[in-house]
Amino acid sequence: MCIDKLGHVITYIALPSNVNVSELARVGLVEMLRQSLDEQDKIAVYERYSRGDIGEDVARIHLGEKLDKMEEEKESFEAAMERDTSEFLTDRDGE
Asked: Is residue 73 in a domain?
């Protein structure tokens, strides 16, 4: 542990030699990116993905597992829209 010129405490961690530090940093940055997006940002990313403006890999970086959940919700909604709703309609007079 040491203190840098700005007074920040810096802790050094000894990592095993088989740890890919670049991959560790990338995973951390991706997680930070996902946490920084609000719901409106997530919806915008999904809409761009749906239109084909961005690829699945880019959408997955931004949304993670939420991409799968959004796809499932979309499929459920589309299935509900195709359903015959006449069986749910009733006459108020009991006819």
From this structure: yes
Using CA atoms, how far apart are residues 48 and 56, in angstroms rounded to an integer? Answer: 10
Domain limits for position 54? 38-82
CB 4 within 8 A of CB 10: yes
Domain count for the chain, please give it.
1
Cβ-proximal residues to 34 (8 Å cutoff; 6+ apart), any chain: 62, 63, 64
pLDDT at res. 22: 74
Please give the full DSSP string across 26-87, using - where no structure is assigned.
HHHHHHHHHHH--HHHHHHHHHHHHHTSS-HHHHHHHHTTHHHHHHHHHHHHHHHHHS-GGG
Single pTM value for the model? 0.54
Is residue 33 in some structural domain?
no
Interval 57-84 mean pLDDT? 87
